[in-house]
Amino acid sequence: MSTSHPPLLELSDLRVAPVADDGSVGKEILKGISLTLRAGTVHALMGRNGSGKSTLSAVLMGHPKFRVTGGSMKYLGEDLTGIPVHERARKGLFLCFQYPMALPGVGVAQFLRQSVKGVRGADVPSKEFRPLVKKHLEALGIPQTFMTRYVNDGFSGGEKKRMEMLHMLLLEPRLAILDEVDSGLDVDALKVVAESINRLRSPERGQLLVTHYQRILDYVVPDEVHVLLDGEIVRSGAADLAREVESRGYEWLAKGAA
Amino acid sequence: MSVSPLSPLVSASLARASGDPDWLAAARAAGLERYAKGGLPSRAEHLWRYTDPVRLVPGSAPSDPETRFGDLPPDFADGTFERASAYAIARDGVLLRAAVDPLIAHLGFLVEDLRAAAASRRALVEPRLFALRDTCDGAGGRFDDLAAALFTGGTFVHVPRGVTLDRPVRIAHRVGGGFAASRSLVVAEAQCTATVVIDLSSAAETDAGTLHETIEIHVGRGAELRVVFVQRLGDRATHAPVVRSRVERDGVLDTVTVALGGGLVKSLQTVELAEPGARANALGIVFADGRRHLDHHTFLDHAAPSTSSDLDYRAAVAGRSRSSFTGRLRIPAAGARSSAHQSNRNLVLADTARADAIPELEILTNDVSCSHAVATSPIDEEQLHFAMTRGLSPADARKLIVLGFFEPALEKIPPGMLADGVREVLERKLGAAS
After folding, report:
1. In this predicted structure, what is the pLDDT of residue A254?
2. Where are the domains of chain B?
C-alpha cells in the first residue's frame, strides 16, 4: 500500500487519564504516546502490569471511564475522540477484550447476527450467515451447540477467547486491538488464537497485540514491537526486541537504567 | 373502612346465582357475607403497603359480558391443533367457546365453562372450587371473597389421572371497559403432565376496565403442570389477579408470569406445597413503563417436609412507573428438610421510575436449605459498552440486555406461543422508553 494513504492508526503524544464516577479526571496514565501502525502490519505493545497497556486498548475503543487529555489518536486520518463507541466498530475497529463481558439471556447467534448487522449497516441473510459461522466454528474447534448458549455466560477462559476470535473473524475488522489475548491460555488454545489473528492478516488490515509476555509472538510475528513503561513508550524495535524483553525483563528499559 | 355500596353487588350476586346449582349459590352468598363483614384491608397490612385497596373496589356490579371476542391472537391456528391440545377464548370472564383436538378427545381432558361444569360435573368441581381460599393464611382473601360472590364465568380445565398432553391448552381472555369478575379452576390429577397458556388483553388499548380474577390450581400427586400467564392489558386497565395453587406429593408446578400492561395491577400468587416432595418453580417478569403501578406479591408455603421451591422474579421499570415485589416464604416446623430459593432482580431504566423489593422470610426450622437474593440497579455500563464495541447502537445494546434479562422466563413459554409477541412488545416499549 502506498505511503500516501493515511496510516491505520496514528497516535501522537496521546495522553489519557481515568474519569471517576463523579466525573472528576484523575492522574494521567498514558503520558504522551506516539505510534504509527500502517495497513498490512502487526504491532506488539508490551509492558508489565500497570504500565497502561489496557488503558490504551480501552481508550481506542471509547471506554467512558477514560478521557483523552492531550495529543491525538487518528484512525485512517480521522480523530477518534468524540466518535461514539458503536461508530468506531462500524468504521472497522475491533477490541478483543481481556475479560469479555457475559451477557446472560443473550444467545451467541443472536448477538453475532446483530453485531454483524450493526457493523455492516444491513441485515445479513441467514443463508449467508449460517455457512459463514459454520466455517469459523470448525476452524476454531467450537461445537455448533455454542451458538445456542448465552454470550460468555458460564464460559471457561478458553471458551471466552474462542468466542472473541469467532466474533473478530466474522466482523473482519480493519484494525483489531487484542488486549492480553494470550493470558490464561494453554498452548492449544494459544495456537487457535494465533491462527485466527494470522488468518486476518492482509495488506488492508492491521493488528495491535497488547501483551505482557512474548509467548504469543512466537506464533504471530510482529513487524514492530513497542515497550510501554509507566505510560510511555520507552523503546520500539523489530520482533527481536520482544525476545530481548523476554530474556532480560523490563527493568533495563526503565528510565535511568543503564 | 366502609365498603362502597353493597346493595347493587348483593343483587348482582343473587342474579348470577340464579343460574347456578345450590351449592355454588350458597358459596357465593358466603363470599359476599365475608366480604361485607371484613371490610377493606387496612393499608397497614403488609400486603397493601404499596397499593390502596380502595382503587380496586368496583364502583358497580359486573357489566354484561361482551359476546364477541374480536380478532384471535396470531398463535390461534384456526381449525388445526398443531401447537395446542385445545383452544379456548373468553370475554369479560365468560368462556365463549372451547375446542379440544378431536384426535385426543378420547383422553377425556376438559376445557369448559366453569359454571356449566359446576352444574354438570359437580363431583369434579365442588371439592376443589374455593378449596384454597384459606391456604397461605387466606392472604388477600377479601377481594377473593368478592370475586367468589360476583364471578360471571371462567374456565374449567381438567386433566385426568395419568394423561400426558404433549401440546398446551391455550386460552385467550379479553376484557373491555367495564367491571368483570372471573374465576377459573385448573385441576391436574395425579401423574398427569400438562401446560396451560393464558393470555389476557384489553379489547381496546384505551379500555379502562377492572378485572377481578381468581384462578385456583390443583396439582395432584406426581403431576407436572406448567401454567404461563401473559398479561398485556391496556394502559388504563386495572387488574387484581389472585392465583392460588396447591401441590400434592411429588407434584411439580411451574409458573411463568409475564406482566407487561395494565395501569394498576395488584397481583397475588400463593402456592401451598402441601405434601412431601412437592415442588414449585415460579418465574416472573414485569415490565413497567409510562405511569404503570404494578404490585406483585407471592407467598410460598412449605407446609410439608422435603418440599422445594425456586422463585425468580425480575422487573424492569421505565418512565414514571413503579413496581413492587413482595416475596413471602414460609417454612414452618412441619417443612423440615425443604429447600427454597428466591431471587428478585430489578432493572431501573429511568431515574423517575422506582422498583421496591421486599423479601419476607419466615423460617421456623433449621433443617432447611434456603437462599434469597434481591438486587436493584441500572443496566450494567460495562455490558452496554461491550455490546456497543461490537457495533450495536446504544438503543439496540440496551434492548439486547433488557431482553436478555427477561429471557430465562420467556424461553419457558411453549414454542410458537406468545414469546415472540412478548419480545416484540418489549422491544417496542424499550424503543419508546430509551
Report:
1. 80
2. 7-433
Nearest to B382 among A86, A101, A118 (CB): A101
pTM metric for this prediction: 0.89
What is the bridge-based pairing of β-strands A66-75 and A9-18?
A: antiparallel
Enumerate residues 390 to 409 of chain B having a beta carbon within 8 A of any beta carbon in chain A: 390-394, 396-397, 400-401, 403-408
B284/B258 Cα distance (integer angstroms):
6
Q: How many CA atoms lie within 13 A of B53 on its CB side?
A: 22
Is A134 within the bounds of a domain? Answer: yes
Backbone angles phi and psi of B208, in degrees to 5 = -110, 50
Spans in chain A with pLDDT lower than 50 = 1-2, 258
Whether residue A245 is contained in a domain is answered as yes
CA distances for A193 relative to A11, A183, A190, A208, B372, angstroms: 26, 11, 5, 14, 40
Question: Per the structure, how many domains does chain A have?
Answer: 1
Residue of A nearest to B400 (CA): A106
For B203-320, list the strands marked E by DSSP.
Answer: 210-219, 224-232, 238-247, 252-259, 264-273, 279-288, 293-302, 308-317
Chain A contact for B37 (CB, 8 A cutoff): no
Distance CA B426, CA B401 (A): 12
| Lowest model confidence (mean pLDDT) among A65-74, B15-24, B273-282 | B15-24
Q: Has residue A2 been placed in a domain?
A: no
Mean pLDDT of chain B: 90
Is A258 domain-assigned? no
Query: Domain residues for A42?
Result: 9-253
* Contact (CB<8Å) A118/B396: yes
CATH code, domain carrying A215: 3.40.50.300
Interfacial B residues in 72-111 facing A (CB < 8 Å): none
